[in-house]
From TrEMBL:
<feature type="transmembrane region" description="Helical">
    <location>
        <begin position="213"/>
        <end position="234"/>
    </location>
</feature>
<keyword id="KW-0997">Cell inner membrane</keyword>
<feature type="transmembrane region" description="Helical">
    <location>
        <begin position="301"/>
        <end position="325"/>
    </location>
</feature>
<feature type="transmembrane region" description="Helical">
    <location>
        <begin position="240"/>
        <end position="263"/>
    </location>
</feature>
<feature type="transmembrane region" description="Helical">
    <location>
        <begin position="75"/>
        <end position="94"/>
    </location>
</feature>
<feature type="transmembrane region" description="Helical">
    <location>
        <begin position="416"/>
        <end position="433"/>
    </location>
</feature>
<feature type="region of interest" description="Disordered">
    <location>
        <begin position="476"/>
        <end position="497"/>
    </location>
</feature>
<dbReference type="InterPro" id="IPR001463">
    <property type="entry name" value="Na/Ala_symport"/>
</dbReference>
<feature type="transmembrane region" description="Helical">
    <location>
        <begin position="100"/>
        <end position="119"/>
    </location>
</feature>
<dbReference type="GO" id="GO:0005886">
    <property type="term" value="C:plasma membrane"/>
</dbReference>
<feature type="transmembrane region" description="Helical">
    <location>
        <begin position="148"/>
        <end position="166"/>
    </location>
</feature>
<dbReference type="Pfam" id="PF01235">
    <property type="entry name" value="Na_Ala_symp"/>
</dbReference>
<comment type="similarity">
    <text>Belongs to the alanine or glycine:cation symporter (AGCS) (TC 2.A.25) family.</text>
</comment>
<dbReference type="GO" id="GO:0005283">
    <property type="term" value="F:amino acid:sodium symporter activity"/>
</dbReference>
<keyword id="KW-0812">Transmembrane</keyword>
<feature type="transmembrane region" description="Helical">
    <location>
        <begin position="19"/>
        <end position="36"/>
    </location>
</feature>
<feature type="transmembrane region" description="Helical">
    <location>
        <begin position="186"/>
        <end position="204"/>
    </location>
</feature>
Length: 497
């Protein structure tokens, strides 16, 4: 009887861990690739231009963030452990071919990111302070008319980021300190609980501000370090790329991970890095005060490109050039420790210790960001202070648990939570394809008509307006105050149904 229960739980775990996440992401990515006719290829250049176009937002807004601020905030949340330990873990478990499937997932994920962040803008609301709030919980509640679905997503959001992802960050800090300085993991766990407790039980805005300054600096240092190492060994790059591509379609386990394993770990670790389709970045994207919801979808799409196609590739090249993976020296190394050993092969012990500092900074500031995401989920459900404090205590418990447990167990736990959250968000994105296509076509038609800065007027789509929590946010009279009109030479489409 006991063995049957264990087998059943193992099968359920495997389903969530190995199948639900991958298939839901790929189905959504492929669906929107064809529906939007390869949007991530046709509009990538346009997306980059929006980063520096101040006309896409309302310049007189003193409360909400700008599109560029939204992009940088989302990028700060994305760039971190996933770009270092996540890539190394994917290679360790799935072989070099996992990097290729990480690229494929990122390419399709750019389209998914466009969809979820555009929907977050469409269904956003304004609170008493004048700030915009939105995200999957909102477009599930209003777009799908499912309050229960919005509540369930918020609960999963709170568990995924507050528990699973925080434990993963502290696990990688513990692994890196243990590798570099042989520091016992339980000591690291208590230190992290103390530091995390100071942050989440206080309103330490200074720490958040310092993190906002240090993350770009350390990201720049890491990119510079990786680029220098790659350039110094540039003759190895063709071999590395060839290995990545050929290993992606490997069917013989004797020569490394098979294609199924490579896809599995490439997609999962890529998602942990760029978060495309998970429903996390829309919570930030909704805060941007833009003139058309589609512009924010394009801006966030650039973040996926920069995170995975650029930074994750640098880590993969560096790890595979180092000559540690696939040798006796690399046996038993995974995640942060494999990345450290690879840097150490190039730079000596100084390189491994330098990476410890970078990993600690990235991971610990991510703990703060993840707690913020998780607390948003709790706040959506209830604003009870006692429940908020119990949530903080639980977060500290997972902070220690993550630092103490094995990397494989912590990664698997995070994968399951990530799969459930991603599945819920992806289903919502697929079901809301009509309103998404409506606003996308509106933007596209305005561009074709020669309007450089499209403006969304929801009054042209009365059926869509009825589903929005606050349709006045997209009222044409608001746009006209900026001295522009949405009616110039635009053919009104059939209303959304």
């Amino acid at each position: 009887m006991t063995s049957n229960i264990i087998d059943t739980l193992s099968a359920v775990w495997s389903f969530f861990n190995d199948y639900l996440l991958i298939f839901s992401l790929l189905i959504c990515g492929v669906f929107y690739f064809f529906l939007l006719k390869g949007l991530q290829l046709r509009y990538l250049k346009h997306s980059f231009t929006l980063l520096w176009d101040k006309n896409t937002s309302y310049n007189d807004d003193k409360v909400n963030i700008s599109p560029v601020q939204s992009f940088l905030t989302g990028l700060a949340a994305r760039i971190g452990m996933g770009n270092i330990a996540g890539v190394a873990a994917a290679i360790a478990a799935g072989g070099p071919g996992a990097v290729f499937w990480m690229w494929v997932a990122a390419f399709l994920g750019m389209g998914t990111a466009f969809v979820e962040n555009t929907l977050a803008q469409v269904y956003k609301t304004k609170i008493a302070t004048g700030e915009f709030k939105g995200g999957p919980a909102f477009y599930i509640t209003y777009g799908l008319k499912s309050k229960l679905g919005g509540l369930l997503f918020s609960l999963v959001l709170a568990f995924t980021y507050g528990f699973a992802f925080i434990s993963l960050q502290t696990n990688q800090i513990s692994e890196s300190l243990n590798y570099a300085f042989d520091m016992p993991k339980w000591i690291v766990g208590f230190i992290l609980v103390f530091l995390t407790g100071i942050i989440i039980f206080s309103n330490l805005k200074t720490i958040a501000n310092v993190s906002g300054v240090l993350i770009p600096i350390m990201s720049g240092l890491y990119i510079l370090m990786a680029l220098i190492l790659i350039v110094l060994h540039i003759t190895e790059l063709p071999r590395v790329i060839y290995t990545i591509v050929t290993s992606a379609f490997n069917t013989d386990s004797a020569f490394g991970a098979t294609i199924g394993v490579a896809i599995n770990y490439g997609v999962k670790r890529g998602l942990f890095s760029n978060e495309a389709g998970m429903g996390s970045s829309p919570n930030i994207a909704a805060s941007a005060n833009v003139k058309h919801p589609v512009s924010q979808g394009f801006v966030q799409m650039v973040g996926i490109f920069f995170d995975t196609i650029v930074i994750c590739s640098l880590t993969a090249f560096m790890v595979l050039m180092a000559g540690v993976y696939g040798t006796p020296a690399g046996v038993g190394l995974e995640g942060a420790s494999l990345a450290q050993a690879s840097v150490e092969a190039f730079m000596g012990r100084f390189g491994a210790e330098l990476l410890v500092f970078i990993i600690f900074l990235f991971a610990f500031t991510s703990v703060l960001g993840y707690y913020t995401y998780g607390s948003v989920g709790i706040y959506y459900i209830t604003d009870n202070k006692w429940i908020a404090n119990l949530y903080r205590i639980a977060v500290l418990g997972f902070t220690f648990w993550g630092a103490y447990k094995s990397p494989q167990l912590v990664w698997n736990t995070a994968d399951v939570f990530m799969a459930v959250m991603c599945f819920m968000n992806v289903i919502a994105c697929l079901l809301l394809w009509r309103p998404l296509y409506t606003v996308y076509k509106d933007y596209r038609d305005q561009l074709k008509a020669g309007i450089k800065t499209p403006i969304f007027d929801v009054s042209k789509y009365p059926s869509l307006a009825k589903t929005l929590p606050e349709p006045e946010i997209w009222d044409s009279s608001r746009h006209n105050k900026e001295g522009q009109s949405t009616k110039a030479n635009i053919t009104v489409e059939q209303p959304f149904k």
